[in-house]
């Protein structure tokens, strides 16, 4: 039996589980989640997790919301610095860090129909490239690239490409956010903090008082009929769709575009309401190209853990 600790470390939460990699499973057994802010280091969080189990993994594969280079990584939206050498120094015989959306891409073939929620479009072309974009604390982007010779995972920092407005309202949003941030990336809008940025920009553009709200408060106001909050969520969905369509074009994702991250599952009725697909398909001469590509939300909350369990590792 070879036990592997798998982790999914984001800007807010870290999640862990243990797999017997000699008997692969398509489900995550007894995962646990902790707040990143409650722990000084990755190793501290792992130690806390392992204190609650008598299983002793010899491998560690950790998916992180940040760039991984030469076995080292740091979170984009939290202060942890991590390394494979550090994990081996804490007793693991083999260790690997990988980008979280690389892990999500590796999970695609392990997801069941129940793990996916349709957002629109026809059935995807079998064994074709699937692009993945996910809004959460930040914005992750990757792809499972497929051709007749095999599969490969595209690891990207696509969440940090520039926001491209598509109408006069979004041009005004860009102006307001540029004055605040300088360069405006997609993540400045398509994330939890980004939803707040969008709400505040639309309020300012409309001459309204700018409230300092949390993302869930915007959702609550919209559900109670607040027009500005409702328009913010509709605009968020349209921008999300437009970005997803751009990545469908960039990757040639005829297998579909899958939404990861923590936001999609909480916004399914709104994502299905129309604005998302309108933005997705609004590609001028390439409208028909995108109309033929399905969009789905990954509802499996531990997809990155499944991908980390499936990842190759050098002993």
Walk me through what this model shows.
With 315 residues, the chain is α/β, with parallel strands linked by helices. It folds into 2 domains: 3-107 and 302-310, ATPase, nucleotide binding domain (Nucleotidyltransferase, domain 5, 2-Layer Sandwich), CATH 3.30.420; 113-299, 3-Layer(aba) Sandwich (Hexokinase, domain 1), CATH 3.40.367. The chain is 35% helix and 23% strand. The protein has helices at residues 42-51, 84-89, 100-107, 168-181, 192-205, 215-223, 227-251, 268-271, 275-281, 287-291, 303-310, and strands spanning 3-9, 13-20, 32-35, 59-64, 68-69, 72-74, 81-83, 94-99, 116-120, 130-135, 139-147, 150-155, 256-260, 295-298. The chain has a 6-stranded mixed sheet, sandwiched between helices. Strand 6 (72-74) and strand 7 form a beta hairpin. The longest helix is centred in the C-terminal third of the chain and has 25 residues, at 227-251. The model has no long low-confidence stretch (mean pLDDT 93).
**Broad CATH class of the largest domain:** Alpha Beta
Low-confidence stretches: none
CATH topology of the largest domain: Hexokinase, domain 1
**Main sheet?**
6 strands, mixed
Order of helices and strands: EEEHEEEEHEHEEEEHHHHEHHHEH
How many structural domains? 2
Average pLDDT rating: 93
SS summary, helix count: 11
How many beta-strand elements?
14
Coarse shape: globular
Spatial separation of the terminal alpha carbons: 15 Å
Provide the β-strand percentage band.
15-25%
Strand line-up in the sheet with most strands? 9-14-13-10-11-12
- Helix and strand content put the structural class at alpha/beta
Could you estimate the helical fraction of the residues in percent? 25-40%
